[in-house]
Structure prediction request, 848 residues.
Amino acid sequence: MTVVALQDTEARDPALTGGKGAELARLLAEGFLVPPGFCVTTNACARIVEGDTGYRDRLRARIAHAVRQIVDADPAARFAVRSSSTSEDGANASFAGQYETRLGVAPEDIGDAVVEVCRSAKAAHAREYRVYRGASDGAMAVVVQQMVRAERAGVCFTKDPVTAKDHVLVSANFGLGETVVNGEITPDSYVIDRRTMSVGSRSIGSKGRRTVLAPSGTTTVENRVEERAAPCLSDAEACEVARLALRVEALHEAPVDIEWAFEGERLFLLQARPITTLDSRTSGPPKGWAPTDNTPIDPTYPLYSNGNISEVLPGCVTPLSWNHTGQLIEHAFLSQLHSLGAIERNASPRALGFFFHRPYVNVSLLLEAASRTPGMTEDTVLEEFIGKPETRSPPVGWRDLLPNRLPRLLRVLAVVMLRTWTLPRAIAVSCRTAETDAARVDDAWLESASDQSLLELTKMTDTLAAPSVVHVWASTLASVAFAQLRATLSKWVQDDEGALASALVSGIDALPSAAPGASLHALGQRVRADQTLTAALVGAPSDQDAYRRLSESELGSELREFLLQYGHRGVAEAELSRPCWREDPSQVVALLRNHLRDGAVAPKSIQERHSRARAEANDRLRVLPWWRRAVVVWMTRRAREGLLNRETMKDVVIRRLDRSRRAYAELNRRLVSRRLLTEKTDIFFLRWEEIDRLVSGALSPDAASGIVSQRRRDFNWSKRVAVPKIQERVPRTIALDELAASIELRGMGVSAGQVTGVARVVTDPRQDARLEPGEILVAPVTDVAWTPLFAQAAGLVVEVGGLLSHGSIVAREYGMPAIVGVNGATQAIQTGDRVSLDGRTGVVRKLA
Prediction:
């Protein structure tokens, strides 16, 4: 890989793009306004320094292509060409000024400037600085960015680098920021209180001259007398710069200094780095810290589990996503429990909890509901959220027939029968509504809609929650049907581990969660028929480049059809801050590349595996009397229909969430353009009510900024800690250091079979979508975005999930051994480890 765009996920790898390049790519991904550009990678720079003339000529052509993409949008563009060493811009050494920098470079001169910057890595003063700072030689990359036509620019420190006082310092001059960075002039200085976000003091510098863009490069001009005496920033603009820097600090969880520039009213972030002159700080939260959004635990309901729900909302969840998606799930849970009479309608217990920005289910409430509801059993709750119970209890006992309990039993039977009878129609209505919504709420509608219309579209109402209610009922009926099938087979043919039941329900036609994988494989086969296109995609330097090549090919229409059908799906698709496939189609091409490798598993072989498994299962049923076989056939049909209904409604729910995602994106665009919010990710740290107040003017931008900063810090700190599957009485975190030494891990076997192979740990398929055929996939969670990887996997290990979670259903669909609920698996197992797993017992072993 020689050239990688800053917006590509690969650009975030400092080994490829150096410290500065990786930081800029990360900032861009987090939504900061960073000028467009690209990186010449460390490998390419090494070849340049070696003096490979032929390679240098080929690289110039690649660079010219990348430059043209920017110049096409702005023919007058000029560029900054800067070093980006792998040792640069770190916590211990910034390397500021040690390598060559070229500013105002014309498009035709980019190649020469890149060569010059690459060669500066060998300069004597740079070697001396590395020795002085105790830094490694590091590899060199080069960042090429379009230059901002800066009217005012400078630097900002989130902590005084000399006194370490806890205030924000802003230094500014007219023109480009080079005069401030290089110390050529005395700039204007502003001291800003972090708490009140107000200017405490200011000093007007002499500002004798400024640096501006010239036809070729830059030039220095004298500032007019009246400019020298006047502040180049208003107090409001200085505070805006400070807020920008504090957002970067929240991302780094440590003091930073940034370079910034105003072009008109637009504030650009040019660079960011840790303040290396301060004492080192811990990277995690302080001892005893807990997020302000943690759910208070009612002693009456002390037990919570993240089993299953972490698959819907994996990892750390932003406040807006929890406010929106969490309310939908909460409403659906309580609606079902109320209709069954499991809890009183005037009671208001929490069905969900939110601890360290992770979602949990109130297991205590579900256990109480099960004990109060004839036909429900605590065993099902425990098995889904805690673990397999040691003893089994019947769902209906003789006590349920007593006069004081019989009305409850009749009510439950009536409600369940009614829901079972009306479910197909409710699903059909939900599907039609989802299709109508998708056609109605298009780009034109979103652009023309009023702020209030967008807010109404995302407001929590019974109408908004209707698909979630149907989904919960579909899931419950599927769970009951599958549990009854397992219990019956366990009793009649000793299928204690559920392997026979799993085989009988595999191979469901048109399962929505498995369909994207099958469609991608079919598209991959079409690509493989074109050797030139296959070579182009396999050899593309980035997923974005591969996407462009495929979309411009004859198969581009098939790719667009795939995105039209499945574009609302994606990684962590219920998290509103994560881009879906429609918003970032390069994710799809990254997955498609797995189907271009030799040995890729075809859907036909998976179907044949299903047929064999079902035939073997049916053979085992031949020992049963005919009437018992008939009962099993009926129960199997119910379970298969239940699983199909569950996955169909999951797709409908995600379509409804995608409608909300698009509405929030439009709201956010407007709020940023009005300067009510600063960055495009700010909206995810507000709740619906706060967005409503911000739009109406009841919440000031400064107050919103304070809320965002606090929650962003809590969110980032939460990402640094691990949480247990079970929370009880007091929310806590756990240490996973000991897991790396564990030889045996345990979870819940959900798809029978044994397999031994090489592990591939994938924590985010957007960044690492590669899986060699036959590897064992180890993941923190799985949703539809992971499904295309399943076809190539020999086995599956997931940190969260239950019997009917997405990963479990699709693993059985693909006929591969799978274990879910293996807490800490992605820390205990590393890519390349040889592991064995048993999908019956739920045991994973690391082998020598």
